[in-house]
Specification:
This protein is mainly alpha-helical. The chain has two domains: 112 residues, Rossmann fold (3-Layer(aba) Sandwich), CATH 3.40.50.300; 45 residues. The chain is 61% helix and 5% strand. The radius of gyration is 24 Å and the shape is elongated. The protein starts with 5 loop residues before the first helix and ends with a helix. The mean pLDDT is 92. It binds adenosine-5'-triphosphate and magnesium ion. The site of magnesium ion (MG) has 2 residues, from helix 2.
Length: 175
């Protein structure tokens, strides 16, 4: 049995309503702490969080898959030590529909599930890939410049481009 650090114990047992931020270096046990913390929340018989009400988001698909796999493994272990618990068995089933995904797919399902509340969003919307995003942002730039050239006086345009020029040179000098 590994010896947890005091910070890990604190993070696993964190029970405040306020948000918490846990940071630690690579490979030091962040996912481990997260798995233990979630397992504690969903296996608390007195005040359980229904496992299908969880939302855990990650940046990468790989991290989401790892979190899902390690969490199911943890609950399976709890069930092995407590084979008569219908409660844990049900939580394990519920866990398969928990929202453990990347931020992008979480947002996608949020928009899909609430599409009727968003009249400006086309029902056939899809996630933009990076090539399409580049094309769209170039089109948007062109529109902005067209707007500026059409609506701004020569004087205003000069001032704006001077300001932009200064910002860009500051950005480059910072880099
Ligand atoms: N206190 C500890 N003592 C010994 N081993 C530990 C301790 N805490 C976690 N570990 C083990 O360290 C390994 C790495 O843990 P984990 O994958 O959770 O780290 P991580 O911070 O999420 O890594 P990454 O930065 O790659 O995402 C795991 O095998 C985990 O069981
Ligand atoms: Mg990790």
């Amino acid at each position: 049995m590994m010896k947890l650090t005091q910070q890990q114990v604190n993070a696993i047992n964190y029970a405040e309503q306020a948000p918490a931020c846990v940071t630690a270096s690579a490979g030091s046990g962040k996912t481990f702490v997260l798995v233990e913390h979630i397992a504690k929340l969903i296996s608390d018989v007195k005040n359980p969080v229904p496992a299908d009400r969880l939302a855990a988001v990650t940046f990468t698909e790989k991290a989401a898959a790892e979190l899902k796999q390690r969490l199911s493994q943890k609950v399976e272990e709890l069930l092995k030590n407590n084979p008569d618990s219908d409660f844990l068995r049900e939580q394990l089933v519920r866990l398969s529909s928990a929202r453990i995904s990347t931020i992008s797919s979480f947002c996608l399902s949020l928009v899909r599930d609430n599409i009727r509340l968003l009249p400006d969003v086309d029902e056939g919307f899809e996630i933009c890939d990076s090539t399409k995003a580049d094309i769209l942002s170039e089109k948007a730039e062109e529109k902005v410049f067209e707007h500026i050239c059409a609506d701004y006086s020569e004087e205003k345009r000069k001032t704006l481009f001077k300001k932009l020029g200064k910002k860009v040179s500051i950005m480059f000098s910072v880099k």
